[in-house]
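note to self: dont lose this again. the chain is below, predicted strucutre after it. 194 aa total, dont forget to put it in the shared folder this time
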Amino acid sequence: MEKYLEAAPKSWKHRLVLSAVPKDGAPYEDSFSVHLDRPVSYWDQIYTLLSDPLVKVEACRSEGRVVVIVSLRTEVGVPCARCLEPARSEIGGELRYIFSLRRDERQREESEEGQDGEEEMIVLDSWEDEIDLGQLIWEVLITALPGAVLCSPDCKGLCPQCGANLNKAPCGCKKESRDPRFDVLKNFMADNGK
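---
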C-alpha cells in the first residue's frame, strides 16, 4: 500500500442514483462524510486530513441534462510554509458538473453554435442507473487544498543562515542586508581597484 494518496481512493464508491433526481426539475440533495486512511500528496506537499470531509451533493434536471454541484468542507494539517511547524487550515470548495447524453449534445451544438459555456460538461453515451461521484469529490478536494499555509499570520520563519525557527528565539546570526546575486559585481569592483 502506498504511503500517500495521489488519486481518488478506490474505496470511494459514492453514487448518484439518477432515479432519485426528480424529473420535474426539483432539487435533490444528499450529505455524507468520506474517509481517507492516508495523507494526500499534491504538488510535493503532504496534507493530513484532520477530520473526515463533509460532502454535499445537489442535483437537478434541466433541459434534458443533470446538473450536479459537489461541495466539500474539512480541516487539513500541513507544514507551515515559513517555519515547517504543523499548521491547520479549514478548507472548502465547490464544483459544478453537467451530465448530458451524446445524442442530445450533438443537437444542442447545432442550435447553440458560437455560445461559450464555462461549466464542465460530461457527455454520457446513455443514462445509466447511477453516476459515480468518487472522482468528482476528489477533484473538489484537490482544488480546495491551499498552496501555502502559515502556522500564524506573523510567523517569522526559519533563519536563512542557520535554519533556526525564529518564532521560538532569535538565532544570533549576523543579519546581512546584501543580495548574494551582486557578489560577482562586488568582486569585479575590487579587482579593478575601485
